[in-house]
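In the lab's daily routine, each protein ends up as an entry in a very long ledger. A line of letters takes care of the sequence, but it says nothing directly about the fold. The three-dimensional part falls to structure tokens, numbers that each stand for a local backbone shape. The outcome of that step, for a single protein, is printed below.
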Amino acid sequence: MKNEVKNGIIIAIVVVLILALVYLTTAVFLTGEIGNNKNGDSDNNSTSEENANEDVSSLTSYDNMIIVGRIFDQEDDTYMVIIYSQKDSSDALKTAISTYDSSDHDVKLYKVNKDEAINKSVVSDTDNTMPTNSSEIKVKDNALITISNKTVSSYISDDEQIMNALK
């Protein structure tokens, strides 16, 4: 009887350890939930208000996010799509995108995060400035594409010009 209880406790501990290991592996390697320091700061001196602002901005950053395969499938007659890296883009570009999102504009801005695995197909050594469908879209760095009536009417790949276009 004591052996059965002892074996049961050992099995329960092993199961808990395996589940913890699976969670940690997922959190660290797949989602970046643990150990991801966005600001590059190692000190945790941020206030709760700053943390709240970061939480709000991270929640709103997914407004109008689409996958690359849906770029030409939007309902609007004219709209813009920014293809960018949320990890590698400058703060100035991120601010320009956020400011455009929070303002009232006639032309809607959709966002494609090329860091996501489903959007990796757009990353290339060269830009295709006149794609006719989603599979032809190739971006070297960042790009702001204006689409009118399901065709590309403008393609901007310079960050400064992108920020000016979003003003």
Observations:
- Helices lie at 2-30, 48-60, 91-102, 159-165.
